[in-house]
């Protein structure tokens, strides 16, 4: 009798193992995940409490109030929006709907690892285009496209590099890909990037019939624990995702809280201002203690630990842990000498730099 086994590509998926603060009663400074250091908006918290009295009810299956709140906030058409349990679910659903065994799905070298996982789950082949010094290389991506390329995933800005490519490069990518390839723009960190040449991709979705935009409430809105993401795209894509998603995939508290979060412009501005103040500070201070920091437009930085045979990346991680600070190793991105460090609150950023100076000198 054959043993039960999943498809071979599923066997290649490495389960995600986030860094976890030990449950030792200490107050850890956790800079390993990309949380909003200011937490959620007070308006979102009120809505969450209000939702508590209604959790015996199923949520809106058509996600109407949340889709309309997103549509109003971003001046887009609610009929072209779908909401999911985090943007990660949407990445999986799009992959599932458009790719399968025998197909190829394109992504980029240091691109968000959720793409590879979603691709492997479908049985399609992941084709990975090289980057240049931690930045997406559009021409390399176009070169790797074939008649079998069903989807091209682009994280812009990208995690864990923190870098972005300008809107005209995204247009060039679209123009260079085959028309049968769906371009998926994952703009999870768009709210943090106000560079004049950057776009989250809204216009390119509106001017094409083969581009999908993915956004999340986990970062700027500080709702990572609730799991809400959304997509904006052509009817074909929205209908396909709606066809395969769980009818009640976004919980009632998640829908109500996310809609309320969108109405708190003050909290968004405070979050942006905090990041705009501390991201450059952190980048400068990390460079001062000897790390190489890649230019980031996100709420984290990618930092390379100096090559020193007596001091590996793990030694730095261990030292920080002894000081009660967690950062993220990025070995699974082929970056064993780098760390991803999230911008924290003022006292957290300062404690990190003090601890790094102790070990790096
Ligand atoms: C680029 C990118 N896309 C998508 C996600 C998934 O976010 P969520 O599922 O919390 O919306 C992340 C999370 O870290 C990310 O960095």
TrEMBL record:
Region (Disordered): 1-21
Highest taxon of the lineage: Bacteria
Pathway in which this enzyme or protein is active: Amino-acid biosynthesis; L-histidine biosynthesis; L-histidine from 5-phospho-alpha-D-ribose 1-diphosphate: step 7/9
Keyword set includes Transcription regulation: no
CDD domains associated with the record: AAT_like (cd00609)
Molecular function per GO: histidinol-phosphate transaminase activity; pyridoxal phosphate binding
GO biological-process terms attached to the record: L-histidine biosynthetic process
InterPro entries: Aminotransferase_I/II_large, HisP_aminotrans, HistidinolP_aminotransfase, PyrdxlP-dep_Trfase, PyrdxlP-dep_Trfase_major, PyrdxlP-dep_Trfase_small
Enzyme Commission code: 2.6.1.9
Alphabetic keyword roster: Amino-acid biosynthesis, Aminotransferase, Histidine biosynthesis, Pyridoxal phosphate, Transferase
SUPFAM superfamilies per the UniProt record, alphabetical: PLP-dependent transferases
Residue stretches making up the Aminotransferase class I/classII large domain: 29-356
Residue numbers of N6-(pyridoxal phosphate)lysine PTMs: 219
Catalyzed reactions per annotation: L-histidinol phosphate + 2-oxoglutarate = 3-(imidazol-4-yl)-2-oxopropyl phosphate + L-glutamate
Gene3D superfamilies associated with the record: Aspartate Aminotransferase, domain 1, Type I PLP-dependent aspartate aminotransferase-like (Major domain)
PANTHER family, sorted: HISTIDINOL-PHOSPHATE AMINOTRANSFERASE (PTHR43643:SF3), HISTIDINOL-PHOSPHATE AMINOTRANSFERASE 2 (PTHR43643)
Family designation: Belongs to the class-II pyridoxal-phosphate-dependent aminotransferase family. Histidinol-phosphate aminotransferase subfamily.
Subunit structure and binding partners: Homodimer.
Name the record gives this protein: Histidinol-phosphate aminotransferase
């Amino acid at each position: 009798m054959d043993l039960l086994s999943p498809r071979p590509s599923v066997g290649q998926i490495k389960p995600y193992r986030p860094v976890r603060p030990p449950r030792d009663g200490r107050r850890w400074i956790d800079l390993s995940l990309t949380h909003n250091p200011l937490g959620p908006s007070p308006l979102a918290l009120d809505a969450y409490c209000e939702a508590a009295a209604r959790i015996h009810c199923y949520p809106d299956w058509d996600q109407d109030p949340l889709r309309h709140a997103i549509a109003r906030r971003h001046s887009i058409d609610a009929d072209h929006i779908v909401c999911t349990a985090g943007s990660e679910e949407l990445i999986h659903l799009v992959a599932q709907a458009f790719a399968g065994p025998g197909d190829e799905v394109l992504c980029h070298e240091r691109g968000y690892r959720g793409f590879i996982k979603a691709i492997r789950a479908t049985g399609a082949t992941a084709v990975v285009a090289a980057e240049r010094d931690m930045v997406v290389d559009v021409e390399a991506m176009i070169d790797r496209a074939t008649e079998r390329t069903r989807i091209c995933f682009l994280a812009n800005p990208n995690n864990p590099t923190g870098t972005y490519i300008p809107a005209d490069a995204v247009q060039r990518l679209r123009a260079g890909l085959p028309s049968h390839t769906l371009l998926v723009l994952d703009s999870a960190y768009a709210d943090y990037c106000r560079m004049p040449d950057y776009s989250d991709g809204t216009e390119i979705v509106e001017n094409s019939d083969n581009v999908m935009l993915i956004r999340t409430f986990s970062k700027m809105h500080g709702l990572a624990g609730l799991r809400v993401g959304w997509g904006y795209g052509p009817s074909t894509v929205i209908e396909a995702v709606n066809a395969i998603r769980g009818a009640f995939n976004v919980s009632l508290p998640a829908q109500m809280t996310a809609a309320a979060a969108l109405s708190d412009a003050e909290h968004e501005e405070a979050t942006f201002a905090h990041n705009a103040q501390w991201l450059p500070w952190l980048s400068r201070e990390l460079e001062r203690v000897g790390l190489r920091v890649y230019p980031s437009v996100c709420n984290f930085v990618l930092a390379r630990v100096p090559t020193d045979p007596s001091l590996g990346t793990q030694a730095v991680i261990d030292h920080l842990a002894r000081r009660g600070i967690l950062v993220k190793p990025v070995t699974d991105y082929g970056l064993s000498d780098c760390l991803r460090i999230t911008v924290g609150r003022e006292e957290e950023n300062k404690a990190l730099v003090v601890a790094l100076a102790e070990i790096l000198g």
